[in-house]
Design brief:
The protein is an alpha+beta fold. The protein has a single domain, classed as 2-Layer Sandwich (Alpha-Beta Plaits), CATH 3.30.70.100. The chain is built from three helices and four strands. It has a four-stranded antiparallel beta sheet. Helix 1 packs antiparallel against helix 3.
Length: about 100
């Protein structure tokens, strides 16, 4: 199995309650039910007030590298990424477990 973690940082001046951000969150929340390759899916807003914290996180798992590739190329994933690209940056980590 591969764990796929993504941490998002909203761009300067962007707020969680903006309609475009809310739409991006909903697009990602829906992925768990749309992409067969996902074996585990959760996402949510950070609750820490530490200055080094990111704003939003995705924690997911897929069977193997081929499944990860299919997930990343899936049109629903690509649509969500396009939304988030408008107002955030992110970092990822993929690891076997």
């Amino acid at each position: 199995m591969i764990r796929h973690l993504v941490l998002f940082k909203l761009d300067e001046g962007v707020e969680r309650d903006e309609p475009r951000v809310a739409a991006g969150v909903e697009a990602f929340r829906a992925l768990g039910g749309q992409i067969d390759e996902l074996r585990f899916w959760e996402c949510g807003w950070n609750t820490s007030d530490r200055p080094i914290a990111y704003d939003f996180a995705i924690n997911s798992a897929v069977e193997d590298a081929n499944a990860l590739k299919r997930y990343l190329e899936h049109p629903a994933h690509q649509a969500g990424v396009a939304q988030w690209r408008e107002f955030a940056t992110w970092v990822i980590a993929d690891y076997d477990f």
